[in-house]
Specification:
about 130 residues; alpha+beta; Alpha-D-Glucose-1,6-Bisphosphate, Chain A, domain 4; globular; Polyketide cyclase; START-like_dom_sf
Length: about 130
């Protein structure tokens, strides 16, 4: 499932903010309320335990992918893109349904992503 929003901020500005893991706490509630840098990398507390989070390298191409691994579970790949659209930015996150996830759980995850992207839009547009 692709979750999408349009932000009325130029790509360069949106990307500069969103690609910094330190800024995730301002918009990515599902991941970042507990996100912290450690000697093991970025760590987040989840209901399933600590998760190690890897981020794609900062780049000018709008790639904001990240990978989340909780001990004893397969790593989850989260493709996230920012794409220039005139003076604005399209943001798209591909949400993969995880094995054994119920329809209700998948829709709940999708709603959390929608909220996070709405918060990102609000934060970025409020910074203008």
């Amino acid at each position: 499932m692709i979750v999408h929003t349009t932000i009325t901020v130029p790509l360069a500005s949106a990307l500069a903010f969103a690609q910094e893991p330190e800024n995730f706490s301002q918009w990515a509630a599902g991941l970042a309320r507990s996100l912290r840098r450690t000697e093991r990398g970025w760590i987040a507390d989840t209901p399933a335990g600590e998760a190690v989070v890897r981020f794609s390298a900062p780049n000018e191409h709008g790639v904001l992918d990240h990978w989340v691994r909780v001990a004893g579970r397969p790593e989850i790949y989260v493709p996230l893109r920012m794409i220039a659209n005139g003076d604005g930015t399209e943001v798209e996150l591909i949400l993969y349904r995880q094995p054994e996830m119920s329809d209700a759980d998948f829709e709940h995850d999708a709603e959390l992503v929608r909220r996070d992207l709405a918060t990102l839009k609000q934060v970025l547009e409020g910074r203008q």
